[in-house]
TrEMBL record, chain A:
One of its GO terms (biological process) is cilium movement. Residues 174-189 have a biased composition (Basic and acidic residues). Keywords: Cell projection, Cytoplasm, Cytoskeleton, Dynein, Microtubule, Motor protein, Repeat, WD repeat. GO terms for molecular function: dynein heavy chain binding; dynein light chain binding. Residues 1-56, 126-202 are annotated as: Disordered. Pfam families: WD40. This is Dynein axonemal intermediate chain 1. It comes from Esox lucius. One of its GO terms (cellular component) is microtubule. Consists of at least two heavy chains and a number of intermediate and light chains. Interacts with BICD2. Interacts with CFAP45 and CFAP52. Interacts with CFAP53. InterPro entries: Dynein_IC, WD40/YVTN_repeat-like_dom_sf, WD40_repeat_dom_sf, WD40_rpt.
From TrEMBL, chain B:
It comes from Esox lucius (Northern pike). Residues 4-92 form the Roadblock/LAMTOR2 domain. One of its GO terms (biological process) is microtubule-based movement. This is Dynein light chain roadblock. Acts as one of several non-catalytic accessory components of the cytoplasmic dynein 1 complex that are thought to be involved in linking dynein to cargos and to adapter proteins that regulate dynein function. Cytoplasmic dynein 1 acts as a motor for the intracellular retrograde motility of vesicles and organelles along microtubules. It is found in: Cytoplasm, Cytoskeleton. Pfam families: Robl_LC7. GO terms for cellular component: cytoplasm; cytoplasmic dynein complex; microtubule. InterPro entries: DYNLRB1/2 (IPR016561), Roadblock/LAMTOR2_dom (IPR004942). Keywords: Cytoplasm, Cytoskeleton, Dynein, Microtubule, Motor protein, Transport. It comes from the Eukaryota.
């Protein structure tokens, strides 16, 4: 414990007092002088003063010389309990006042000595705990000794040997302990802080046995995939489709029966899926193979231009390209040809027979230029086909006229070989062969309709209403100027036989009908009994009559009387007459020029005329088929490509490419050229109209 | 079904065609007119090539897809038409 200054001073004074008992002359002087400076309050000092009077004053040489007044001056000395080493100017930052403030009271405690001891006060917590620990063994020993005395007295009375043994053992142990504790009572056993003593025991070690078990490894398959942009796209598409399906399912309540039925269907499909799905691919491959085989033809079709046309002033040639033939159609003759307006490489061939005695079956065959060896579609028919027409807007609808007078409509989209609609004797079919059919624009109810003309003298309009063909007689061709009376007063036949017709390109209601008598009637849809005009066209049946595609007034007709005639419908006599030395089977205007047309004859030749270049002769006359006996029956220009297809009576269709000279577009200036031919003024037709575009 | 058979037959009997192989989606030949070892070889190699070609086409534009592939060599021409599930390989000697 620190001792206060006062006691120190006191002890110091005490020691001073003691030291005075052994004075030396100099020391006494010092002491005396000190005492003079000291406090008067001290008794010991005064005592010393009295004792010191007997001696003389000896001044040390360096003593201050002070005056009496100065010597008597009293100096106060204050003893405080302040720690001289404690700082007096501690400054702390005050957050309240946000400035540094000096601390008023500073701790004045000075520690002089510090020693850690291991003595505990007996009433403190720690001491009590230790007592408690020591107290237990003491108490135990006392208890056990008591029990030991009891048990030793009654060893035989113990019930079970084990129990006794255990008790004895326990007693023995405790006995040892108690002996210790006995001795320890007097001398307390020295234990460490944790009361630790090593006690070891060993249990029985069980024998180790190794047991293993192995399962079958899970089946593993290595998986690798790439995450390309298109794979991600595919997955997204599938997800979308699934979602759409789910939406549909949510909307439509599914019937269980339907589901079962569908399941059955799907099962069957998977079993026989082997080759049906290869169909599309097989088609592509077939076309590729054909392209390879007929590679040169394909190249010619595309790129060949006859260079020799430059040297031939006005003549042109026809380059033979593909030849289309179908095995099953060998004995039939081509009776109709039609290009498809939407798919420019697809054309339809109607097969039948013109021979009255050889009537049998027929066929409707579709070919594509991409595959010349096998048709795209083919439909066998019971009766020979005489005419066909493909709908201009709906390229899958085909109207067909038969030799037996029926008309039918085929839908190419459907798989079945029968027509979608067919007229029957109930529904007004013709009683004679149907020579021409033509699609018309949809009527007001958006039903498709077409016209047909037949030898029974009727021009009939057929409308496709739902699943039926509804017919309307448009006009009945009556014989104009029938004078001759039949034998025995039989009334003369009043009906003419129509053999061809054509509708005006621009004027919808106007059409022409050619008859077997060689007359051409100009008719209107509005008038059902009267003709607008009649032309004495030919001596034999009119095989074809066609309006010019550009000029609104001009039409052409051909007949088996070897002639081709060009008419202006306002003039009753033909404008041009061409004699071709053989029966003319068909004639067609070109789609690219208003002055070019082609005709086919029974001697196997194709005649191409261009009225802009040569008004009297053909610019091309070319035999197209090998055998001279083959008659050419039909000709059609392709709407886009510079090729023509020609059908003959052996069932072959030949395609030919027109050389550049035949394809010249008319170049007329703004001059009107009057040409006199048979006393008729003729205006070049192309002058008035621009080219048909699109 | 019969139509497809007929088409395949026609291709096979077409002028210059050496052989045809129908391969399924995994590259295993289903139908062939050539001998086994050649078939397996053609099928394996062309399958990989077709997959690569198709991947290329679709990577450029995912909405596009490969229609057919033609490899012309000195001796003959190999034509491959892939489909979702099947692939048709035809080896032809072009008329040149």
């Amino acid at each position: 414990m620190p001792v206060t200054h006062k006691t120190l001073v006191k002890s110091k004074q005490g020691s001073n007092a003691q030291s005075q008992q052994k004075p030396l002359a100099a020391k006494t002087a010092k002491v005396v002088s000190k005492k003079k400076d000291e406090d008067d309050g001290t008794e010991i000092g005064e005592g010393g003063d009295e004792w010191m009077h007997g001696k003389t004053l000896i001044k040390p040489p360096d003593q201050l010389d002070l005056t009496e007044a100065e010597l008597k001056e009293e100096f106060t000395r204050i003893l405080t309990a302040n720690n001289p080493h404690a700082p007096q100017n501690i400054v702390r930052y005050s957050f309240k006042e946000r400035s540094y403030k000096p601390i008023s009271s500073v701790d004045q405690l000075a520690v002089h000595f510090f020693l850690e001891g291991n003595l505990l006060h007996r009433d403190s917590d720690e001491a009590r705990r230790q007592k408690a620990k020591q107290g237990l063994p003491d108490e135990k020993a006392t208890v056990v000794t008591e029990t030991e005395d009891e048990k030793l007295e009654t060893p035989l009375q113990a019930a079970g040997g084990e129990e006794a043994g255990d008790v004895e053992e326990g007693g023995g142990e405790d006995g040892a302990h108690s002996v210790d504790s006995k001795t320890g009572k007097k001398e307390q056993k020295l234990t460490n802080q944790f009361n630790f003593s090593e006690r070891a025991s060993q249990t029985l070690n069980n024998p180790l046995r190794e047991r293993g078990c192995q399962t079958e490894p899970p089946p593993r398959a290595s998986f690798s995939a790439t995450a390309n942009q298109w794979e991600i796209y595919d997955v997204y598409l599938e997800e979308m489709q699934k979602q759409e399906k789910n939406k549909e399912k949510a909307k439509a309540v599914p019937k269980k029966e339907d589901d079962k039925g569908k399941k059955k269907l799907t099962l069957v499909e998977t079993q026989s899926d082997d080759l049906t799905k290869v169909a599309k691919v097989a088609k592509i491959i077939e076309r590729m193979v054909n392209q390879n085989t007929f590679d040169d033809i394909a190249q010619d079709f595309r790129y060949f231009e006859d260079a020799s046309d430059e040297f031939r002033e006005q003549e042109g040639t026809l380059l033979p390209l593909w030849k289309f033939q179908y095995d099953q159609a060998k004995r039939l003759s081509v009776t109709a040809l039609c290009w498809n307006q939407s798919y420019k490489d697809l054309f339809a061939v109607g097969l039948g027979s013109y021979d009255f005695t050889k009537q049998g079956r027929g066929m409707l065959v579709f070919y594509s230029l991409k595959n010349s060896t096998y048709p795209e579609y083919n439909y066998p028919t019971t009766s020979g086909i005489l005419c066909l027409d493909i709908h201009p807007d709906r390229p899958y609808l085909v109207a067909v006229g038969f030799y037996d007078g029926c008309v039918a409509v085929y839908n190419l989209k459907e798989e079945r070989p029968e027509p979608v609609y067919k007229s029957s004797s109930k529904s007004g079919k013709h009683t004679d062969p149907v020579w021409q059919v033509r699609w018309q624009k949809d009527d007001m109810d958006n039903h498709q309709n077409f016209f047909s003309v037949s030898s029974d003298g009727r021009v009939v309009s057929w409308t496709l209403v739902k699943s039926e063909l509804v017919f309307t007689d448009i006009i009945k061709l009556s014989l104009v100027g029938a004078v001759s009376e039949g034998p025995e007063g039989v009334p003369p036949p009043t009906m003419a036989c129509g053999t061809s017709f054509d509708f005006h390109k621009q004027i919808n209601y106007l059409f022409l009908v050619g008859t077997e008598e060689g007359k051409i009637h100009k008719c209107s849809k509005a008038y059902s009994s009267q003709f607008l005009e009649t032309y004495d066209a030919h001596n034999m049946a009119v095989d074809a009559v066609k309006w010019n595609q550009f000029h609104p007034k001009v039409f052409i007709s051909c007949s088996s009387d070897w002639t081709v005639k060009i008419w202006d419908h306002t003039i009753r006599t033909p404008v041009f007459i061409f004699d071709l030395n053989a029966a003319v089977g068909d004639v067609a205007w070109s789609p690219y020029s208003s002055t070019v047309f082609a005709a086919v004859t029974a001697d196997g030749k194709v005649h191409v005329f261009d009225l802009g270049i040569n008004k009297y002769e053909a610019i091309c006359q070319q035999p197209v088929v090998a055998k001279k006996k083959t008659k050419l029956t039909h000709i059609e220009f392709n709407p886009v490509y510079p090729i023509i297809i020609v059908g003959d009576d052996r069932g072959y269709v030949t395609s030919l490419k027109l050389s550049p000279n035949l394809r010249s577009k008319p170049k007329w200036g703004r001059k009107k050229l009057d040409i006199q031919f048979s006393g008729i003024h003729y205006y070049p037709p192309s002058f008035l109209f621009l080219r048909k575009t699109g | 079904m019969a139509e497809v058979e007929e088409t395949l037959k026609r291709i096979q009997t077409h002028e210059g065609v050496i052989g045809t192989i129908v391969v399924n989606a995994e590259g295993i030949p289903i139908r062939t007119t050539l001998d086994n070892s050649t078939t397996v070889q053609y099928a394996g190699l062309l399958h990989q090539l077709t997959m690569k070609a198709r991947s290329t086409v679709r990577d450029i534009d995912p909405q596009n897809d490969l229609t057919f592939l033609r490899i012309r060599s000195k001796k003959h021409e190999i034509m491959v038409a892939p489909d979702k599930e099947y692939m048709l390989i035809v080896i032809q000697n072009p008329s040149e």
